[in-house]
Amino acid sequence: MDDEQALDHAVTPSPAGEDASPGRAMRVAAALQAKGGDEFAKPGSIVEVKFVKGQSLSLTASRLLALMILTAGGDAWEDRPHKMRKADIRRGHKGNERISDMLEELHRTLFAVDDKSWRGKKATLRFSLISSSREEVEDEEGAEAGWIEWEFTPEARKLIQESETYAVLNRQAVLGFRSTYALKLYEIGALRLHRRQSLWKGDMTALRALLGIAPDVYKDFAQLRRKVLEKAKAEIDQLAHFRVEWREIRQGRTVTEIEFRFEAKDAPEQIATVDEIARHSAGRKARREDEVETVAVEAVTQAAVAALVSKDKTGAGEVTFPNGTIRFGSDTLAAIGRSAGGGWDIDLIADAYRAQMGERLAKLKGAKLIASWTGFCESFLARRGRP
């Protein structure tokens, strides 16, 4: 029995006839919240809600919504405000302007679900997910600096409350995606993974509605495949606990439908995924696309750490970062710079590293210095590309 099936057995069914009781999604969310950790449950009704034609959420707003669901946990369906620290949203960004932009985007984006009118006729219900939000604007220092507060709309709360399906997501994976389409497909895959048939099938209109692709974007399927599907698959295969494949269904030469199939990774693959999520995002694309170089960098780093441990035992001391060139007298640092720097001049990278670290560099030694220097070299290559 896997973790998600165990959660299904752990939650207690709601007594019949209690209109104010939450569905299975909220009970699982409460169980995960009590357990702690990075996993949280997003109600299937919210995962599958469709954007109103011509609208979609940006990647940053999609992440914020996921964090709101995570923070609200099993109480997301209740008619009350929820709150979260800005520091949990920014992920290292110094300014708060982007948080204001994300909140405003969530306010103005409309979603749609099938519903019934007051006469019992088929109707489309359009609504926003949050009804109000408050953002602290005074500058403060420390861990408690800056909070936001929000309330979900009655329509959103009803969907959340009644949802019997859910997607178990990983917080670090959600924050790690660089494509809004990849994040959306990740949520769909997590929702459908353990169903009897773990697939999604639809025509091009349904696909665009599912991923929030505007009608005037990627009109040619070959472009949509290259810019959306292939990029989303690459990220999901690297960061999710499952893999995704798709099948194109054609009429003549025209792709009319698409079928996504989601398959859980085996244990070694899941361990590799957990390790990747724990690593710094800098260099992730390079690691995904150039595995040989990644292995070489890791081998050099591991050898460097082993050498440092050996030096410590013999009393030879710990390596420190030199003030001048690293080409002579710093073989360990130079080797890492050549392997992880992608061909850039290693003294150029070293100067940039000194500028970023400042006074902190004097206190950094040994294995911690090796890890920091390796991460910076990978980040330098990821930002600038190859020379």
TrEMBL record:
| UniProt xrefs under SUPFAM superfamilies | Winged helix' DNA-binding domain
Q: Which Pfam families match?
A: Rep3_C, Rep3_N
Chain segments carrying region Disordered? 1-23
MF terms in GO: DNA-directed DNA polymerase activity
Family listed: Belongs to the initiator RepB protein family.
Recite the lineage of the species: Bacteria, Pseudomonadati, Pseudomonadota, Alphaproteobacteria, Sphingomonadales
**All copies of domain Initiator Rep protein WH1, residue ranges:** 55-188
Q: Name one GO biological process term.
A: DNA replication initiation
Protein name per the record: Initiator Rep protein WH1 domain-containing protein
